[in-house]
Amino acid sequence: MRPHYGLLCFALCFVGSFSVQADDWPRFLGPQHKGVSDETNLVGSIPAAGPDVLWRVDLGVGSSGVVVSAGTVYTLFQDDARQYVVALDESSGDLKWKSGIADAYLNPQANGPRSTPTVAGDAVYVMTGEGILVSLDSDSGKIRWSVNTVSDPGMEPAQFGMSSSPLVYNDVVVVQTVSQDGSIAGFSVESGVRKWVAGIPECGYASPALISLCGVRQIVAMTGASVAGIVPHSGELLWEHPFVTDFNCNTANPVQIDESSVLISAGENHGSVLLGVTESDDGWTAEERWSSLGKRSVLRAEWQTPVLLDGHLFGLDNIGAAGPITNLVCVNAATGKSVWSKRRFGKSNLTLADGKLFMVTIDGELVIVNATTDGFRETARTKVLRMTRQAPVIANGRLYLRDDKEVVCIDVLAKS
Question: How much is the pTM?
Answer without folding.
Answer: 0.93
